[in-house]
């Protein structure tokens, strides 16, 4: 059996006595794999019935007569809730993939990935009256999984748009000696210091009411964190309540 973790510490015993505690984490790892596979499978299996329920609810909505008060009141809400369920299962699937699949690194232009995310979300920003722009290097090559880089970019830019009521969102990439840095800066609601660490936890939301109206799942930042760390990088947050936030992802160059 593989011994996964060994920990030793010196207690207040007479000098020369060391207690070595060894934990076998093989079973824990196996359970963890089962959990991740289970979440991925459930998320995947839920997609087909949800698509079908949505299609049927939409047909009922299309066929409802103006005097069908109950149908007109409830069907849009049913469809809205199905969309929410679909988002949760989509994000759970992304998270479990990020957690369990080995990173498939390839040469990837981070600047292009971020510009694409900005283009993709441009209309959403305009609808909210926000200025969304890309300001950064024209090209920044890293060894990374391009799909996962795109997930990070979309999650962070989408959040910046969701949690900003006025002003701007700026996405950029730059180079540090060992890292490619991807940053998203907004002039939005900001995050009080006591939440800075917790926002990266699964399902953690600062204001559940506020987040619910923005339609989030509470999984976006944990996906970002997992992907960044799986690439040997990190994510950091600099934010002041009511002033805005800057999220920065660091990916090692040339690994
Ligand atoms: P959600 O799907 O709720 O957006 P995330 O994991 O992406 O979940 O984010 C967790 C919480 O962190 C959000 O619910 C929100 O409260 C806060 N948050 C994330 N990004 C920002 C931001 N740019 N500005 C202010 N708050 C943010």
From TrEMBL:
<dbReference type="GO" id="GO:0016036">
    <property type="term" value="P:cellular response to phosphate starvation"/>
</dbReference>
<keyword id="KW-1003">Cell membrane</keyword>
<dbReference type="GO" id="GO:0004721">
    <property type="term" value="F:phosphoprotein phosphatase activity"/>
</dbReference>
<dbReference type="GO" id="GO:0000155">
    <property type="term" value="F:phosphorelay sensor kinase activity"/>
</dbReference>
<feature type="domain" description="Histidine kinase">
    <location>
        <begin position="41"/>
        <end position="255"/>
    </location>
</feature>
<keyword id="KW-0067">ATP-binding</keyword>
<keyword id="KW-0808">Transferase</keyword>
<dbReference type="GO" id="GO:0005886">
    <property type="term" value="C:plasma membrane"/>
</dbReference>
<keyword id="KW-0597">Phosphoprotein</keyword>
<keyword id="KW-0902">Two-component regulatory system</keyword>
<keyword id="KW-0547">Nucleotide-binding</keyword>
<dbReference type="GO" id="GO:0005524">
    <property type="term" value="F:ATP binding"/>
</dbReference>
<keyword id="KW-0472">Membrane</keyword>
<dbReference type="GO" id="GO:0045121">
    <property type="term" value="C:membrane raft"/>
</dbReference>
<keyword id="KW-0418">Kinase</keyword>
<protein>
    <recommendedName>
        <fullName>histidine kinase</fullName>
        <ecNumber>2.7.13.3</ecNumber>
    </recommendedName>
</protein>
